[in-house]
Input
Amino acid sequence: MIRRRERRHTHGSHERWLVSYADFITLLFAFFVVLYASSKADQKKQQQVAHAIDSAFHALGVFPVSGVKPDSLNISAISRDQASATSIVMREDVVSPARVKQDLTEVQKRLEKMLSGEIAQHTVSIQMGKDGLIISLREAGFFSSGSATPHPGTLPILREIAGALGETPYDMRIEGHTDNVPIHNDEFDSNWELSSARATRITRIFLATGLIEAERISAAGFAEFHPVATNATAGGRGENRRVDLVVRPQTRVNLAMPLGDSANASWRKITDE
Output
Protein backbone atom coordinates (compact mmCIF):
# COMPACT_ATOMS: atom_id res chain seq x y z
CA MET A 1 0.00 0.00 0.00
CA ILE A 2 2.78 2.37 0.81
CA ARG A 3 4.53 1.75 -2.49
CA ARG A 4 1.30 2.30 -4.42
CA ARG A 5 0.74 5.69 -2.77
CA GLU A 6 4.30 6.73 -3.56
CA ARG A 7 3.82 5.86 -7.22
CA ARG A 8 0.67 7.95 -7.40
CA HIS A 9 2.45 10.90 -5.80
CA THR A 10 5.32 10.65 -8.21
CA HIS A 11 2.98 10.38 -11.22
CA GLY A 12 1.05 13.49 -10.14
CA SER A 13 4.21 15.63 -9.81
CA HIS A 14 5.03 15.16 -13.52
CA GLU A 15 1.85 17.04 -14.55
CA ARG A 16 2.49 20.21 -12.50
CA TRP A 17 4.29 21.83 -15.45
CA LEU A 18 0.89 22.34 -17.07
CA VAL A 19 0.05 24.91 -14.37
CA SER A 20 3.19 26.92 -15.10
CA TYR A 21 2.61 26.64 -18.83
CA ALA A 22 -0.97 27.86 -18.48
CA ASP A 23 0.23 30.85 -16.41
CA PHE A 24 2.83 31.67 -19.05
CA ILE A 25 0.25 31.50 -21.85
CA THR A 26 -2.08 33.76 -19.86
CA LEU A 27 0.68 36.33 -19.28
CA LEU A 28 1.73 36.20 -22.92
CA PHE A 29 -1.87 36.75 -24.02
CA ALA A 30 -2.18 39.73 -21.66
CA PHE A 31 1.10 41.15 -23.02
CA PHE A 32 -0.13 41.07 -26.61
CA VAL A 33 -3.47 42.55 -25.60
CA VAL A 34 -1.59 45.50 -24.05
CA LEU A 35 0.53 45.91 -27.20
CA TYR A 36 -2.56 45.86 -29.39
CA ALA A 37 -4.31 48.45 -27.23
CA SER A 38 -1.20 50.67 -27.27
CA SER A 39 -0.97 50.50 -31.05
CA LYS A 40 -4.60 51.53 -31.37
CA ALA A 41 -4.03 54.48 -29.03
CA ASP A 42 -0.98 55.59 -31.05
CA GLN A 43 -2.98 55.34 -34.26
CA LYS A 44 -5.67 57.55 -32.78
CA LYS A 45 -3.06 60.11 -31.74
CA GLN A 46 -1.54 60.00 -35.21
CA GLN A 47 -4.92 60.68 -36.75
CA GLN A 48 -5.43 63.62 -34.39
CA VAL A 49 -2.03 65.03 -35.34
CA ALA A 50 -2.78 64.47 -39.04
CA HIS A 51 -6.10 66.32 -38.70
CA ALA A 52 -4.35 69.22 -36.94
CA ILE A 53 -1.64 69.45 -39.63
CA ASP A 54 -4.22 69.22 -42.39
CA SER A 55 -6.20 72.08 -40.86
CA ALA A 56 -3.05 74.20 -40.67
CA PHE A 57 -2.16 73.54 -44.31
CA HIS A 58 -5.73 74.37 -45.37
CA ALA A 59 -5.38 77.71 -43.57
CA LEU A 60 -2.08 78.33 -45.38
CA GLY A 61 -3.60 77.38 -48.73
CA VAL A 62 -1.17 74.47 -49.25
CA PHE A 63 -4.01 71.98 -49.75
CA PRO A 64 -7.38 72.73 -51.34
CA VAL A 65 -10.43 71.99 -49.25
CA SER A 66 -11.16 68.80 -51.22
CA GLY A 67 -7.51 67.75 -51.35
CA VAL A 68 -5.44 65.29 -49.34
CA LYS A 69 -7.20 63.46 -46.54
CA PRO A 70 -5.64 63.69 -43.06
CA ASP A 71 -5.37 59.89 -42.75
CA SER A 72 -3.14 59.72 -45.82
CA LEU A 73 -1.18 62.88 -45.03
CA ASN A 74 2.57 62.44 -45.33
CA ILE A 75 4.55 65.54 -44.41
CA SER A 76 7.74 64.26 -46.02
CA ALA A 77 5.90 64.03 -49.34
CA ILE A 78 5.41 67.78 -49.49
CA SER A 79 8.31 68.79 -51.66
CA ARG A 80 9.89 72.20 -52.10
CA ASP A 81 8.42 72.42 -55.61
CA GLN A 82 4.92 71.72 -54.31
CA ALA A 83 5.28 74.38 -51.64
CA SER A 84 6.43 76.98 -54.15
CA ALA A 85 3.41 76.27 -56.37
CA THR A 86 0.85 77.12 -53.69
CA SER A 87 -1.09 80.31 -53.26
CA ILE A 88 0.18 83.08 -51.02
CA VAL A 89 -2.08 84.78 -48.52
CA MET A 90 -0.98 88.33 -47.77
CA ARG A 91 -3.19 90.29 -45.42
CA GLU A 92 -6.67 89.61 -46.85
CA ASP A 93 -5.71 88.82 -50.45
CA VAL A 94 -4.73 85.48 -51.96
CA VAL A 95 -1.91 85.93 -54.47
CA SER A 96 -0.31 83.27 -56.66
CA PRO A 97 3.49 82.92 -56.89
CA ALA A 98 3.28 83.90 -60.57
CA ARG A 99 1.58 87.15 -59.58
CA VAL A 100 4.23 87.83 -56.93
CA LYS A 101 7.01 87.28 -59.46
CA GLN A 102 5.24 89.53 -61.96
CA ASP A 103 4.85 92.28 -59.35
CA LEU A 104 8.49 92.10 -58.31
CA THR A 105 9.61 92.12 -61.94
CA GLU A 106 7.65 95.33 -62.51
CA VAL A 107 9.23 96.86 -59.40
CA GLN A 108 12.65 95.80 -60.69
CA LYS A 109 12.09 97.51 -64.05
CA ARG A 110 10.89 100.68 -62.34
CA LEU A 111 13.91 100.79 -60.01
CA GLU A 112 16.34 100.05 -62.85
CA LYS A 113 14.97 103.05 -64.72
CA MET A 114 14.99 105.22 -61.61
CA LEU A 115 18.53 104.23 -60.58
CA SER A 116 20.07 103.90 -64.04
CA GLY A 117 22.87 106.34 -63.18
CA GLU A 118 23.86 104.50 -59.99
CA ILE A 119 23.67 101.15 -61.79
CA ALA A 120 25.97 102.48 -64.53
CA GLN A 121 28.43 103.58 -61.84
CA HIS A 122 28.26 100.11 -60.23
CA THR A 123 27.17 101.53 -56.88
CA VAL A 124 23.74 99.85 -57.12
CA SER A 125 22.77 96.47 -58.53
CA ILE A 126 19.28 94.95 -58.81
CA GLN A 127 18.54 91.30 -59.40
CA MET A 128 15.93 88.65 -58.66
CA GLY A 129 17.02 86.16 -55.99
CA LYS A 130 15.48 83.06 -54.47
CA ASP A 131 13.94 85.08 -51.61
CA GLY A 132 12.72 87.96 -53.75
CA LEU A 133 13.99 91.14 -55.38
CA ILE A 134 17.46 92.20 -54.14
CA ILE A 135 18.63 95.83 -54.36
CA SER A 136 22.31 96.01 -53.41
CA LEU A 137 23.71 99.32 -52.17
CA ARG A 138 27.48 99.05 -52.37
CA GLU A 139 29.75 100.71 -49.86
CA ALA A 140 31.61 102.63 -52.56
CA GLY A 141 28.53 104.67 -53.35
CA PHE A 142 26.83 105.00 -49.96
CA PHE A 143 29.31 104.69 -47.06
CA SER A 144 32.79 105.69 -46.07
CA SER A 145 35.09 102.84 -45.10
CA GLY A 146 34.37 101.67 -41.55
CA SER A 147 31.36 103.99 -41.17
CA ALA A 148 27.66 103.18 -40.82
CA THR A 149 26.44 106.66 -41.75
CA PRO A 150 25.36 107.02 -45.41
CA HIS A 151 26.75 109.92 -47.41
CA PRO A 152 24.37 112.93 -47.27
CA GLY A 153 24.18 112.94 -51.07
CA THR A 154 22.63 109.46 -51.07
CA LEU A 155 19.61 110.42 -48.95
CA PRO A 156 17.49 111.49 -51.98
CA ILE A 157 18.28 108.14 -53.62
CA LEU A 158 17.24 106.25 -50.49
CA ARG A 159 14.02 108.26 -50.34
CA GLU A 160 13.20 107.39 -53.96
CA ILE A 161 13.78 103.70 -53.21
CA ALA A 162 11.57 103.92 -50.12
CA GLY A 163 8.83 105.55 -52.17
CA ALA A 164 8.92 102.86 -54.84
CA LEU A 165 8.94 100.00 -52.34
CA GLY A 166 6.34 101.63 -50.13
CA GLU A 167 3.77 101.28 -52.93
CA THR A 168 4.15 97.48 -52.93
CA PRO A 169 2.43 95.11 -50.46
CA TYR A 170 5.64 93.20 -49.78
CA ASP A 171 7.97 93.15 -46.80
CA MET A 172 11.61 94.21 -46.88
CA ARG A 173 14.58 92.73 -45.05
CA ILE A 174 17.58 95.07 -44.88
CA GLU A 175 20.83 93.10 -44.69
CA GLY A 176 24.28 94.46 -43.88
CA HIS A 177 27.31 92.66 -45.37
CA THR A 178 31.09 93.20 -45.21
CA ASP A 179 34.23 91.64 -46.65
CA ASN A 180 36.49 89.38 -44.59
CA VAL A 181 38.98 92.08 -43.56
CA PRO A 182 38.75 92.49 -39.76
CA ILE A 183 37.72 95.89 -38.48
CA HIS A 184 38.57 97.59 -35.21
CA ASN A 185 38.07 101.30 -34.82
CA ASP A 186 36.64 103.71 -32.27
CA GLU A 187 33.07 102.86 -33.28
CA PHE A 188 33.10 99.16 -34.19
CA ASP A 189 35.04 96.17 -32.86
CA SER A 190 33.96 93.64 -35.50
CA ASN A 191 32.33 93.24 -38.88
CA TRP A 192 29.22 91.98 -37.10
CA GLU A 193 28.75 95.36 -35.48
CA LEU A 194 29.48 97.28 -38.67
CA SER A 195 27.08 95.25 -40.83
CA SER A 196 24.32 95.42 -38.23
CA ALA A 197 24.79 99.18 -37.76
CA ARG A 198 24.59 99.85 -41.50
CA ALA A 199 21.41 97.80 -41.85
CA THR A 200 19.87 99.54 -38.85
CA ARG A 201 20.83 103.00 -40.12
CA ILE A 202 19.22 102.38 -43.53
CA THR A 203 16.15 101.07 -41.73
CA ARG A 204 15.90 104.26 -39.67
CA ILE A 205 16.19 106.40 -42.80
CA PHE A 206 13.40 104.45 -44.51
CA LEU A 207 11.15 104.71 -41.46
CA ALA A 208 11.84 108.45 -41.20
CA THR A 209 10.41 108.96 -44.69
CA GLY A 210 7.03 107.67 -43.53
CA LEU A 211 6.64 105.84 -46.85
CA ILE A 212 6.96 102.27 -45.50
CA GLU A 213 5.16 100.81 -42.49
CA ALA A 214 7.44 99.73 -39.66
CA GLU A 215 5.92 96.24 -39.48
CA ARG A 216 7.05 95.57 -43.05
CA ILE A 217 10.77 96.18 -42.36
CA SER A 218 13.37 94.06 -40.61
CA ALA A 219 17.14 94.53 -40.30
CA ALA A 220 19.98 92.04 -39.93
CA GLY A 221 23.79 92.00 -40.00
CA PHE A 222 25.63 89.11 -41.65
CA ALA A 223 29.25 90.35 -41.41
CA GLU A 224 31.46 88.61 -44.02
CA PHE A 225 29.63 85.28 -44.05
CA HIS A 226 27.37 85.78 -47.09
CA PRO A 227 29.71 87.01 -49.84
CA VAL A 228 28.56 87.47 -53.43
CA ALA A 229 32.11 87.55 -54.82
CA THR A 230 35.58 86.37 -53.87
CA ASN A 231 37.41 88.11 -51.05
CA ALA A 232 40.74 87.31 -52.71
CA THR A 233 40.63 90.45 -54.87
CA ALA A 234 39.97 94.11 -54.17
CA GLY A 235 37.09 94.14 -56.66
CA GLY A 236 35.45 91.14 -55.03
CA ARG A 237 35.76 92.64 -51.55
CA GLY A 238 34.20 95.84 -52.87
CA GLU A 239 31.16 93.89 -54.08
CA ASN A 240 30.83 92.12 -50.74
CA ARG A 241 30.74 95.40 -48.78
CA ARG A 242 27.09 96.21 -49.32
CA VAL A 243 23.61 96.62 -47.86
CA ASP A 244 20.99 94.43 -49.52
CA LEU A 245 17.32 95.41 -49.62
CA VAL A 246 15.45 92.11 -50.04
CA VAL A 247 11.84 92.67 -51.12
CA ARG A 248 9.81 89.54 -50.47
CA PRO A 249 6.59 88.06 -49.18
CA GLN A 250 7.19 86.67 -45.73
CA THR A 251 5.54 83.96 -43.61
CA ARG A 252 4.19 85.31 -40.38
CA VAL A 253 2.46 82.66 -38.22
CA ASN A 254 0.94 83.31 -34.80
CA LEU A 255 2.01 80.22 -32.82
CA ALA A 256 0.08 81.38 -29.75
CA MET A 257 -3.20 81.27 -31.64
CA PRO A 258 -5.36 78.14 -31.28
CA LEU A 259 -5.44 76.04 -34.41
CA GLY A 260 -9.17 76.57 -34.86
CA ASP A 261 -8.62 80.33 -35.12
CA SER A 262 -5.78 80.07 -37.62
CA ALA A 263 -8.05 80.90 -40.55
CA ASN A 264 -8.56 84.37 -39.09
CA ALA A 265 -4.83 85.10 -38.90
CA SER A 266 -2.83 87.17 -41.37
CA TRP A 267 -0.67 84.72 -43.33
CA ARG A 268 2.26 85.36 -45.60
CA LYS A 269 4.40 82.80 -47.34
CA ILE A 270 7.88 82.90 -48.80
CA THR A 271 8.16 81.75 -52.40
CA ASP A 272 11.27 80.25 -53.92
CA GLU A 273 11.05 80.48 -57.67
User: Anything to note?
Assistant: Residues 60-89, 252-273 have pLDDT under 50 and may be disordered.
